[in-house]
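Hey, quick one: can you model this chain's 3D structure?
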Amino acid sequence: MNCVLDGGSGIIAISDRCCEAIGAPIDPTHRTHMESANGNIDRATGVIRNLKVVIADLVFYVQAHILSDPPFDMLLGRPFHTLASCITVDSSDQSQLIEIHCPNTQRTMRLYTSQFTRTKRTPVFP
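Sure thing. Here's the predicted structure for all 126 residues.
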């Protein structure tokens, strides 16, 4: 699954496609609105509570809002950055070095990211 890091976003979001693929239980009673950078307002169709997100061998539990047909699989916004005590270093080639800290194990990991480009839709899980 491809994730977009966005420290400016106030939520963690997951696409409805990914939600269906993983079969996570949805709470449809909690619907929030998300304003995109282009000014569009999308309404979440629900939330996945305590979604287990595994990055390498670090495990995080997040509240992920479900969006219909967003341009990403998963958006890791400010709540994730806070939970993981993220430190990012931006490079001129538009890549990032991100350091994340697991609050459960106290382990820290550094990962390199690359610029996000939206490509032809392919199945999230083959």
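One thing worth noting: The helical segments are 16-22, 78-83.
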